[in-house]
Design a protein that fits this description.
Blueprint lengths: L2 H4 L6 H16 L3 E5 L5 E4 L1 H7 L3 H4 L10 H18 L1 E10 L5 E11 L8 E8 L1 H22 L4 E5 L5 E4 L1 H7 L3 H4 L13 H13 L4 E8 L5 E12 L5 E10 L1 H10 L3 H9 L4 E6 L4 E4 L3 H5 L3 H4 L13 H12 L5 E9 L5 E12 L6 E10 L1 H21 L10 H18 L3 E8 L2 H8 L1 H18 L6 E6 L2 E7 L3 H18 L13 E7 L8 H17 L5 E3 L6
Parallel strand pairs: 19-20
Antiparallel strand pairs: 1-2, 1-5, 3-4, 4-5, 6-7, 6-10, 8-9, 9-10, 11-12, 11-15, 13-14, 14-15, 16-18, 16-19, 17-18
Helix pairs in contact: 10-11, 17-18, 18-19
């Protein structure tokens, strides 16, 4: 104990004993703990506290605890946290930044209580410090990523929105709000059907119902009514977003105003001059191909989209700019129009920009027909750069894939969860029935696990399950095998194309591997954590119903427990 702290302790033997007891309790704990006296000086710190900050006990005892905070955190503590602490007698998860001896700054959560139960020492603050630097780093990175994503959405010329399945708008970007002539805040909460002509609402509702039933984006075109009464044609690409349970929670929409395009298609029937005027002033690149797929016209928008002058593209074929991986699909789309199979096509593929980089483009194609013969004579189309939109869609798809993976995984052990296992069991049973192959099932239970939890606590129980799960996964490693946490302390293993003797041998390997973990279990007769395993399989390739296979494996597990646990029992051995 330092000279500074000694000033606040009388020589009374009872007081010295109290200090010694407090210091001993604080030092030996594995948590980051410290105690301060009523003057804010450290009187005891745990070993974990010293290890995290890099100090020796002699360097910190007697110093103000605020010495180890950043200036910002020190000011925050003095101004806000400490007044509330001395008023209530406790702090819960105060966010501070502490400075290590090396100069490194770490983020921490501090919880403390004021212990004034010992008047001899004038009141002591007992604090628990939790290092959350990694969590804060992830949170900051996530905030940057979210801001970047929102920036991408807000920078789009397309109209981007999120709506509930019944059409209530929850988010619109600035382009969406500008299109309707309203501030973004006034759009939130409105129903998109308020902007759809009455005679089109039934068709739009049917379209959205279809979107909610499929797992891909769906395109649609319809008219909308602006607040000033004007109607506009819009092209929509809608996708349903689902939660972990597969329920639709929102519809993500990307739209663009195609009123000019629709009007242009009508005017094309009347005047080529009007068509050319529209094409030359549109933001989409308009092009015309003959039957040999040679460009005969390209609008000036090609400068912004592809970096070429119109004269450089006319007389060439579009396949020369298409990405090699997508060139076949581009050719097939053109051929489908020229042979009369389709009148319209929409394709998304990569084109090489003049400066050499690849961009994603969306082409809306329409077959041109000879007025005399009615046969396709060429193709007219529009092209637009959708690189940014494609990136957003790819991010959403990737997020959905990650969510799907999480939905199939047990959060504690990393093995498959019960839901995934049940699906796999039905699938493999059907396959075994069709291929006339064996299918084996192991049911595994951790012996005396409730007693383990009662003795060591639930955190230790969780760690025990994690280590046992890892041991199971290490042995059950064929691509077709499935290891799952079946529930609580019970595991299950599915072994396709495996008979019962082979399954029992694998079960024995697992039992031995768990035993070799040597997880202390004082309540167990073995003094170690052990498992009991029941093995069952369809015999000789014969078909076994799922319910029967589960029942046989469960009966075998029960027999393994009856025989003293830490055993493997086979279903066949139970048959008399």
């Amino acid at each position: 104990m330092t000279q500074t702290s000694s000033k606040h302790v009388e020589t009374d033997g009872n007081v010295i004993r109290l200090w010694a007891e407090l210091e001993h309790r604080t030092k030996v704990t594995p948590a980051m703990l410290h105690s301060i006296n009523k003057e804010g000086r450290l009187i005891s710190v745990s070993d974990a506290w010293l290890a995290k900050l890099g100090y020796t006990r002699e360097e910190v005892i007697g110093r103000p605890s605020s010495d180890f905070l950043t200036p910002e955190s020190r000011a925050y503590a003095i101004k806000e946290v400490l007044p509330a602490f001395f008023k209530s007698g406790r702090i819960d998860d105060a966010e501070y930044q502490m400075v290590c001896k090396s100069g490194q700054i770490i983020d921490v959560l501090l919880s403390a209580v004021l212990d004034d139960s010992s008047p001899e020492i004038g009141g002591v603050s007992l604090a628990v410090v939790t290092d959350v630097t990694a969590l804060k780093t992830v949170e900051r990175q996530l905030a940057v990523s979210e801001a970047r994503y929102r920036g991408l959405v807000e920078d789009q010329s397309e109209l981007v929105s999120l709506a509930t399945p019944d059409g209530v708008l929850r988010f619109v970007n600035h382009a969406y709000a500008r299109h309707y002539g309203l501030p973004p805040g006034e759009m939130i909460g409105k129903n998109l059907f308020d902007f759809v002509p009455e005679d089109s609402r039934a068709a739009v509702a049917a379209h959205l119902q279809h979107v909610c039933r499929v797992d891909h984006s769906v395109e649609d075109e319809n008219q909308v009514i602006l607040p000033n009464g004007e109607t506009r044609w819009m092209a929509w690409r809608n996708r349903a977003l689902t939660d972990d349970s597969g329920h639709v929670v929102a519809i993500h929409s990307v739209a663009r105003d195609i009123d000019d395009r629709v009007a242009a298609e009508q005017r094309l029937k009347e005047s080529e001059a009007r068509y050319r005027l529209l094409a030359d002033h549109g933001t989409d690149m308009v092009f015309q191909l003959d039957r040999d797929l040679v460009r005969r016209y390209v609008s000036p928008a090609c400068r912004e989209i592809l970096g070429y002058e119109p004269e450089e593209l006319i007389g060439n074929k579009p396949m020369s700019l298409a990405h090699p991986d997508e060139r076949p699909q581009v050719i097939l789309a053109f051929q489908a129009l020229l042979n009369g199979r389709f009148e319209r096509q929409s394709i998304i593929n990569r084109f090489r920009h003049r400066d050499g980089h690849w961009i994603w483009v969306e082409a809306q194609l329409k077959a041109l027909k000879d007025p005399k013969t009615g046969m396709p004579s060429g193709i007219i189309g529009t092209l637009r750069d959708v690189t940014a939109r494609k990136a957003i869609e790819d991010e959403l798809q990737d997020a959905n894939r990650r969510l799907q993976a999480l939905a199939e995984q047990d959060g504690l052990t990393g093995l498959s969860n019960r839901r995934f296992f049940d699906h796999a069991l039905l699938r493999e049973a059907g396959r075994a029935r069709e291929d006339k192959t064996n299918l084996a099932l192991l049911m595994i239970d951790v012996d005396w696990f409730k007693a383990f939890n009662d003795c060591y606590g639930h955190p230790a129980g969780d760690k025990c399950l994690q280590r046992i799960g890892a041991a199971i996964q290490h042995i059950v490693n064929r691509p077709s095998d499935v290891a799952a946490r079946y529930g609580g302390e019970e595991f299950a293993v599915l072994l396709p194309d495996t008979d019962e003797p082979a399954a029992a041998a694998i079960a024995e390997q697992i039992r031995q591997a768990v035993l070799e973990l040597a997880i202390e279990h004082r309540v167990s007769p073995n003094q170690k954590a052990t498992i009991s395993v029941g093995a069952a399989a369809s015999a000789g390739g014969a078909v076994t119903e799922v319910a029967a296979l589960l029942q046989n494996a469960d009966r075998a597990l029960y027999r393994a427990k009856e025989n003293g646990r830490n055993k493997v029992a086979r279903s066949a051995a139970l048959q008399i």
